[in-house]
Amino acid sequence: MKLVEQIVRSLSTTQLPLARSNQRIQIYSQNLRHSRKMLGLKTSGPAPPTPCSHFLSPNPTTATSRHFKPYSSFRSIKMSAEQIVEHVVLFKAKPDVDPSKLSAMANNLNSLTSLNQVVHLSAGPLIRDRSSSFSFTHILHSRYKTKSDLADYSAHPDHVRVVKEYVLPVVDDIMAVDWIPTDFSGPSEVPPGSALRVTFLKLKENLGENEKSQVLSAVGGIKEKFPGIEQLTVGENFSPGRAKGFSIASIAVFKGVNELEALESQTELANEQKEKVKDFLDGVVVVDYAVPPTQSASL
């Protein structure tokens, strides 16, 4: 019995040099557990730490696990932040409306950029409407982090008031399309002075997923063909109520109007892209818009 007590004391007080081998540490640990058992002592509890292969490789502990949680959370936040919801509304002004009322409409729409849900918002007259079926005159382009933010923006009292007091009295027609870009990259806010080409596509009825994928791929591939495009977003409309049957949407962002106009000289490339999808389409809307250098910030 005295021998056992001596073994226990020696194992609990001796500081083993770091240079001793892992095998000897394991043997001492086994002797300690065996001696405690012989003495009737409790053997439950955490096992002795397993020797490390390198002193810079700590054992996995609770503290170490907690250390990695913020990194995982950061990654998930970063991924969600890359999602953008696009919201585009096209307006057709009444033919005889007073120009000052159209300016008031644009100014009050631009004031909605102050709402918490809005990531980016810009509204104003179009440079041109290239569509033969419609005669739109104005646009609102805005961005949100989630569909829920877009819904909250739409229901916000300030938005409802602006639409009721400044938009509906001066327009004959409205078209709205919403989508989440399939591969968003670049800044969430469109810089002032930029130029946009907005395109909506209406697919022929009874097209399959394969044909739809071909259209999305062709539209998404135009950025490689036209280096003047700073940013391109492409996606499927998820709000069919006011989209007039158009289901594929894209926005090409250019540095300015000059870069957008330069696109006109590349007709051969443009026609090449059109040929890829024209047999699948039943309608096209294309409008150009220049983001004003400054935005109105108050009602």
TrEMBL record:
Secretion signal span: none
Protein name: Uncharacterized protein LOC104246394
Coiled-coil residue spans: none
PROSITE patterns xref list: S_R_A_B_BARREL
Gene name tied to this protein: LOC104246394
Domain Stress-response A/B barrel: 85-179, 195-289
PANTHER family linked: PTHR33178, STRESS-RESPONSE A_B BARREL DOMAIN-CONTAINING PROTEIN UP3
Superkingdom of this protein's organism: Eukaryota
InterPro entries attached to this UniProt entry: Dabb (IPR013097), Dimeric_a/b-barrel (IPR011008), HS1/DABB1-like (IPR044662)
Subunit structure: Homodimer.
